[in-house]
Design a protein that fits this description.
globular, alpha/beta, 23% strand, 9 helices, Spore Coat Polysaccharide Biosynthesis Protein SpsA, Chain A
Length: 305
Amino acid sequence: MADLAVVILTYNEEQHILRALESVASIASEVFVVDSFSTDRTVELARGAGATVLTNTFINQAKQFQWALENAPINASWIMRLDADEVIEPDLAARINEQLPKLGKDVVGVNLKRKHIFLGRWIRHGGRYPLILLRIWRRGYGRVEDRWMDEHIFVWGGRTVTFDGGFADHNLNDLTFFTDKHNRYATREAIEVINYRRGTSTPGVSPGLQDGSSQAAIKRRLKEKFYNRIPYQISTPAYFLYRYFVQLGFLDGKEGLVYHSLQGLWYRFLVGAKVDELENAISGIKDPVAVNAALRRLTGLAIDP
């Protein structure tokens, strides 16, 4: 078994938590579930499966995970971030057990290749596979960006490598859950766009840190430097057409049509519309503290003034 601590954030994840825990049972020397006061059986199931459960009030993913890093009694040499609806498949588990202990001291992070399962189908096209994400890092050599959306793990002191193997994002909830979740995500991403444009917040990382996944870093730069500067009425349909036809999203069948339409068109359009709505509401405000206070009032999110 690898010398690996797995950290999972939860809120009402009774449908997924045992599956996630079972998928890391062969690789995790420690498992910590950080719960946001679930009202279902999440905590009971996690404790029954042997996980150490901590509770903390949720603000956003970044702050919650950084709280976990600072407060969980982690002793393992390596840390893995796993979402409750994600699964480590047996081939990747075997590779982690075999290769992680052999990594030299110059390696501080490990990227994994995530696939997305939607309505029971693996979405292979439209630029959705593989999504290369840094999910394992050496303890003491990584931290989470302080962002409202799309937070990355940053590392320092060495290089990163990538492991092949099955790593799946497979949420079992229905389309109502999907659209509700992405509506909330759209508000958070809109705040990030406004923060970037106005310089009203920083990602909470210091010079010398590196984004573990070059793919993720490139996508973010393209989004911030180009995509977000184009009117969303143009950028959103253009992005969907590129993703669905040029990147062959149509090969994902009817499930792919639903997914690419919702995630690549509706969601991106919603983000743009929310940015416009919020920008109009704060158009006369120049002071950064007052901007954040207004965004907090408008969105109900606990934005630091």
